[in-house]
Amino acid sequence: MWIMIKGFPLVRNVSKLPQGSFRIPGLSHSTLAGSVLHGMKEARHYFVEVWLQTLAPGARTPIHRHSCEEAFLVLKGSGTLYLTTNMHPEFPGNPHEFRIFSNSTFLVPIDDVHQANSPLYSPLFFILFLFFWRRFTYDDWFMPHTAAKLLFPIFWDAVCYQTPLERDEL
Amino acid sequence: MWIMIKGFPLVRNVSKLPQGSFRIPGLSHSTLAGSVLHGMKEARHYFVEVWLQTLAPGARTPIHRHSCEEAFLVLKGSGTLYLTTNMHPEFPGNPHEFRIFSNSTFLVPIDDVHQANSPLYSPLFFILFLFFWRRFTYDDWFMPHTAAKLLFPIFWDAVCYQTPLERDEL
């Protein structure tokens, strides 16, 4: 059966969902569920998002952190996760390096600066679950926290909100 | 690198995670992330869970509802989702029937009674993301709401809570 619920078919084909890149080279993004876009009522104030993303061979996410935890499941491919678990007080500092692989799962703790990349020879497919909140990006691992760029409102905020919310500072 | 965070390695192999069945025949369950088990701090009061489940050929979940929305991604296999979108006030009533398939995604609305099953010839693999709260099960689609069984505390509640929380009633 094919009925519409809140303007969407209940069951959707992931390969036919709209894709975006957030202007990150090599990133492909689809929103599977989102508090604002798809009406997850219980979660509306918490910005719960379920995302499917692909990093093309050799691509990488920005070095960033956010004030929410983030759970990952790698569906296909392998890559590297860089993560600062014991940050220098002024800048992220040298991150730990973790191998991530097909069928691996990990949870990025709140405000730990991190970055994922894919190897040069293959793409990395993963699904992520997060309570999206403030997101800060770094040019490198030694950029002071105070200089990190706050990306807010972001992509879907810009679509959904009429008035930007109040910014917070580190 | 292989370091422990809160007693767990940061990156875990999903195929080596503990598996359970919640006593549902044909169900295999692994918790990828959970508010109580894995310390998703932001979410602690909201019971956020990320689960990977498999239904063996011909298996089905109980007919149930819960006071939270639930997002699904089918990783492999196909099956049927039964869902009551306009419930009879006294019992669930005849459900709508939706085909679910590999790479499909769907969001079960709050308190809609639902059931998923796998076909006789193959298993169904899916990942689900939910704010777990009260869960009620039905013996069939015409069992009165007032007779539905409240399963609370559930599996992991029983492990994690020392004192059961207050029950609510329909």
From TrEMBL, chains A, B:
GO cellular component: endoplasmic reticulum lumen
Signal peptide, first to last residue: none
Protein name per the record: DH200=94 genomic scaffold, scaffold_260
Subcellular location, record wording: Endoplasmic reticulum lumen
A GO term for molecular function: auxin binding
BP-aspect Gene Ontology terms: auxin-activated signaling pathway; cytokinesis by cell plate formation; positive regulation of cell division; positive regulation of cell size; positive regulation of DNA endoreduplication; unidimensional cell growth
Alphabetic keyword roster: Auxin signaling pathway, Endoplasmic reticulum, Glycoprotein, Metal-binding, Receptor, Signal, Zinc
PANTHER family per record: AUXIN-BINDING PROTEIN 1 (PTHR37236)
Pfam families: Auxin_BP
Annotated binding of Zn(2+), by residue: 64, 66, 70, 114
Glycan attachment positions: 103
Organism annotation: Coffea canephora
Main location: endoplasmic reticulum
